[in-house]
Amino acid sequence: MIRFCDLCFALLGLVLGLPILMILWMVGFLDTGSPLFRQQRVGRNKQPFTLVKFRTMKKDTASVASHLASADSITPFGRFLRRTKLDELPQLWNVLKGEMSLVGPRPCLFSQDELIAERENRGVLAVRPGITGLAQINGIDMSTPALLAETDKKMLDSLTIIAYFKYIFLTVGGKGIGDRIPGTK
After folding, report:
1. Within its chain, how far is the Cα of 90 from the centroid?
2. Among 18, 79, 130, 145, which residue has the least CB neighbours within 10 Å?
């Protein structure tokens, strides 16, 4: 049922959101010259996939976890995208392709060994990663690997269709801050 909802919402979001996506792409092109950001992430069963987001940082920024990035690397438009969570919209393509779910543990980088180990120990990597989840709406980011993996496991153990919609509505409603970059709000 959750996969069916993922497909419906991703397709609906991409079709209805196309004008917004195009505007954000054009402004992003003017902002950085490269509006889309692609990065290899850890997917279901530790399979790599390419996550797609709107670029929020300068093109020459090092590829590190958000909590290790510099606030100086975020562009003014990128700050807006992060604050409104619009930078996440292109991930609907990842959801449509079956690489992600709308709700699930945020996909980490392959360099985040401690988080991967914590998630592996709890069976969290057996599911599709998601755009949002319990950790995101509670402001738990990747800087605390054990707490994040524990929260992901708790979410997965109690994930119902009602909880699925709750996490989506809370995220759209502005709850949570996702992966923070030190020095930003």
Report:
1. 10
2. 18
Nearest C-alpha neighbor of 55 from the set 32, 73, 71, 72: 32
Domain count, the chain: 1
Q: Report residue 72: phi and psi, to 5°.
A: -65, -20
Burial code (b: 16+ CB inside 10 Å, e: under 16) for 17-30 equals: eeeebeebeeebee
3-state secondary structure at position 89: coil
Task: Determine the Cα–Cα distance for residues 72 and 66; give it in Å rounded to an integer.
Answer: 12
pLDDT digit string (tens) for 30-72?
999 999 999 999 999 999 999 999 999 888 776 665 556 567 7
Has residue 180 been placed in a domain?
Answer: no
How much is the pLDDT for 61? Answer: 72
SS3 call for 39: strand
- Inside any domain, residue 15: yes
Q: Which token pair is 151?
A: 């929260």
Residue 141 has pLDDT above 90, yes or no: no
Using CB atoms within 10 A of its CB, is residue 85 exposed (0-12), middle (13-18) or buried (19+)? middle
Residue 10 CB partners (closer than 8 Å, separation 6+) = 92, 93, 95, 96, 102
Is the pTM here over 0.85, yes or no? yes
Query: What residue numbers bound the domain in which 144 lies?
Result: 2-172
